[in-house]
């Protein structure tokens, strides 16, 4: 914006952050959302199957260490004797592979 002082700039009627509108919208979404437990259980089941069938053993190992054991990529790399960037790339490839498998599972 041009050199207009911040206090004199026009503000949107609702901003996305810190407004009553955002709180109202969050409450509306919470109350209007249906029960999705069945969909989540199907997704979990399909995720287990996809992990077994689609991922390489190394990808499965790295995902388990990163997400289930909550290790950092640096710690995983140090334990397995590989670089942090290799860990990062392998996890990214595994996530893409799983997303591709699960895209139509819902």
Plain-language structure description:
By secondary structure, this protein is an all-alpha fold. The protein has a domain at 56-106. Helix content is 66%, strand content 0%. The protein contains five helices and no strands. Helix 2 packs across helix 5, helix 3 (57-68) crosses helix 5 (84-102) and helix 4 packs across helix 5.
Short summary:
The chain is mostly helical and 106 residues long.
- The secondary-structure element order is HHHHH
Q: What is the CA-CA span between the terminal residues? A: 45 Å
Q: What is the count of β-strands? A: 0
Number of helices: 5
Q: Rg, please?
A: 22 Å
Helix content: 55-70%
Average per-residue pLDDT, rounded, comes to 82
Largest sheet: none
Low-pLDDT residue spans: none
Label the structural class.
mainly alpha
Instruction: Give the quaternary arrangement of the chains.
Output: single chain
β-sheet strand percentage:
under 5%
What distinguishing features does this structure have?
106 residues, mainly alpha, 5 helices
How do the strands and helices of this protein lay out in sequence?
Layout: H1 20-32, H2 37-54, H3 57-68, H4 73-80, H5 84-102
Helix pairs in contact: 2-5, 3-5, 4-5
């Amino acid at each position: 914006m041009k050199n207009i002082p911040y206090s004199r700039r026009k503000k949107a009627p609702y901003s996305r952050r810190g407004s009553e509108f955002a709180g109202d919208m969050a409450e509306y979404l919470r109350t209007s959302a249906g029960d999705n437990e069945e969909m989540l259980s199907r997704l979990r089941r399909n995720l287990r199957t996809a992990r077994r069938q689609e991922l390489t053993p190394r990808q499965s190992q790295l995902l388990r260490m990163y997400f289930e054991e909550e290790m950092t990529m640096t710690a995983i790399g140090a334990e397995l004797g590989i670089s942090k960037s290799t860990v990062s790339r392998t996890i990214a490839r595994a996530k893409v592979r799983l997303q591709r498998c699960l895209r139509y599972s819902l």
